[in-house]
Amino acid sequence: MIKERYSDHVYSDEMLYILGVSGTPACLLDVHHQTVTLNNVLKNELLLDESNLHMSRWLSLFQMLERGEIYRMIHHSSEWSEKELSVSVKTADITKRYYCKMLHLSNDNIAFIFSSQYKKPYLPVFKHKHKENYDQINPLPHGTVLHQTEVLATHPKAIRTSQVKERLVQASDYFPHGIAMLNRNWEIIYANTTMEKMVNLQISQYYRKKLWDLFPIDDYYDFFQHYLRAMETQETVNFIGEVYNPHILMGVTVVPSEQGITIIAQDVTSSTQQLRDLEEVRERFTLLSENIKEACWICYPQENRLLYISQAFNDIYGLDKEEVMKEPSLIFSLIDDEFLPEVHEAAKLMMEQNHEVEFSITTPAGDKKWVRMRGFPIKENGQTFVIGMDEDITKFKEMTELQEKSQQLSTITQMAAGVAHEIKNPLTAIKGFLQIGAANPDLRDSYHDIILDEVNRIESIVQDFMMLSKPKSSVQLETVNLESIITYVSRLLDPDSANKNIKLYHTCDPELSPFYSEPKRLKQILINLLSNAIDALGEKGEVQVEALLNANELVLSIIDNGHGLSDYELTKLGEPFYTTKEKGTGLGIMVTKKMIDDLDGKILYESTVGEGTRVTVRLPYKTEG
User: Fold this and answer.
1) Phi/psi-derived region of residue 59, left when phi > 0, alpha when psi is between -120 and 50, beta in every other case
2) For the purposes of burial, counting CB atoms within 10 Å of the CB of 262, is it exposed (0-12), middle (13-18) or buried (19 or more)?
3) Which pLDDT tens digit goes with each residue over 478-514?
4) Which residues does residue 97 pair with via DSSP β-bridges, in sequence order?
5) pLDDT (mean) for 437-450
6) How far apart are alpha carbons 16 and 25 in whole angstroms?
């Protein structure tokens, strides 16, 4: 509130107050006492705990080069009346850029008025202090409360403070908010240019006119009601009112005093519409999030704080969402221990990219549940927020497990029938030849090799089954040299390939170094895949083995230029006892896939009839245990 006083110090404090009410950050420097007083707007803007600082502490907030310039201006303040400069102020860990207007008042006081770098106010430098120049800036008559005291105007101290008041009037005319003053008789005694622009009137022409002469009470009843309340209660009143010409929404702060009221106004049409739009979006978002089964949430990870969680959160976790809002760590107390490290890592990744993680929880009621959490980052004003959704996938997991068990049962049934069939054939042959040998002892030796072949076939089937039943826990990792293993397998199969006039080649990535795997399984995988490629070629051809690195993955490819496979044959690969070989059991591919799965790898078949087949195996590449 700006009103007449007879002390420069009190008047300056009131200037800080009126700037604070208008939302303008400002401070007052007392050069003699080396102290700085900040209004609440600047204090909050700079994230400070106190409003009164020693000048050295205040200067430390500015960048090093700017401190010297500001310090020089302060100690040469007698040489200037106004200054304008751009400064950087450090707040917590963030440096903000401001335009700063410096006004040299009396009693060694200097006012600093700050404005955002992006909203530079038009604050001209007044080079003359003569009365005629002042009248051009503010055309109001000199009877306004900012020009002379309405009570005891002849007090001798009024002359001493005239220069300060003149500068304050000049500054107020360029405030970003409209300012107007009424005395106790509802007469207009001051209005700055911003206020005149907002209401589209030259209010200065209505000096000492009643407010209702400009604004009819019937049209602006709400305004008059709030003004009257401020006068009667002597309390600051805030409200939003509607002005009709031009049609705008005005945010108004009414500051009462013994002499009348000070009205501070700003055009909030745009911001109010934005708030209404945001409120409409918020209502739609809330309506959506509160009526879906997934739990929606928004968090501010830098402060480990939840900003929003939907009602479905209670149903999934069995926790009261209000308690979780206060203590987000309650969520982690429900997550089963084996998944905690993975969830913590996923939370970090969600601050950088779209990510999801699945984990199991035990609710306070003792229920076991599976949850899928998805989240992605949103960056705004240099801050990162994470928006996510949690989904109860317990039924999905149970269904998947049931399908797997059903598939396993179907596979076991199919394999049992296959085993019976595959073993029955050699057993029938063995039985037949033994019966012939019993009836004709002289022929017994001639059937010996045939019987031994059939026994070996049975043994091969049994060994494949033993490999399929071997648990993954039996995997023992150790350092292996892939090129050595490929060379070993190639030499092992050289006799067979040479007999068929088939050439074996291999290439290894030069960046490939020893890594952790199980050599036995790795050798068997290569033997099976290379044997299949050699068998597929029949007579004459080439088989190429390639080993490449792709990030943290080893890509092993076996390529042949044989007859290739049809789409139908590709879909049947891996089924028990399905084979394209004359004497195959159909278990080799199953065994190979099982060993690759045990090593946490994947296998892919690509083939074109008449061109050949490519088998790609992807394995984890870890050089450290």
Assistant:
1) alpha
2) buried
3) 888 989 999 888 888 888 888 888 888 899 888 888 8
4) 88
5) 72
6) 9
- Helix (H) / strand (E) containing 372: strand 368-380
Question: Residue 480 class from Cβ within 10 Å (0-12 exposed, 13-18 middle, 19+ buried)?
Answer: middle
Give span(s): CATH 3.30.450.20, the chain.
1-175, 177-286, 290-391
Whether CATH 2.30.30.30 fits 177-286 = no
Q: 397-469 in CATH: which number?
A: 1.10.287.130
CA distances in angstroms from 84 to 192, 307, 577, listed in the order given? 21, 40, 88
DSSP state of 95: E
Give Cα separations from 333 to 304, 340, 367, 485 (angstroms). 15, 9, 14, 47
CA distances from 459 to 194, 365, 466, 575, 603 (A): 99, 53, 10, 20, 27
Question: CATH number of the domain at 290-391, please?
Answer: 3.30.450.20
From its phi and psi, is residue 612 left (phi > 0), alpha (psi between -120 and 50) or beta?
left
pLDDT, tens digit, for every residue of 545-577?
Answer: 999 988 788 999 999 988 888 888 887 776 665
Domain with CATH 1.10.287.130 in the chain: 397-469
Q: Do residues 482 and 513 lie in contact, with contact meaning Cβ atoms separated by under 8 Å?
A: no
Q: Give how far Cα 211 sits from Cα of 185, 234, 503, Å.
A: 9, 19, 104
How does strand 94-104 pair with strand 82-91?
antiparallel
Q: Is the peptide bond before 139 cis (omega within 30 degrees of 0)?
A: no
CA distance 181 to 190: 5
What are 160-216's pLDDT values in tens digits?
A: 455 555 666 666 666 778 889 999 889 998 888 888 888 888 877 888 888 998 888
What is 1-175's CATH number?
3.30.450.20
Tokens read off for 243: 């002005």
The crossing angle, in degrees rounded to 10, of helices 8-21 and 162-172 is 10
Task: Read off the pLDDT of residues 30-53 as tens digits, 9 standing for 90 and up.
Answer: 888 889 999 988 998 888 889 999
The DSSP 8-state label assigned to residue 126 in this structure reads P
Q: Which CATH architecture has domain 472-620?
A: 2-Layer Sandwich (3.30)
Q: How far is CA 60 from CA 101, 109, 194, in A?
A: 19, 19, 35
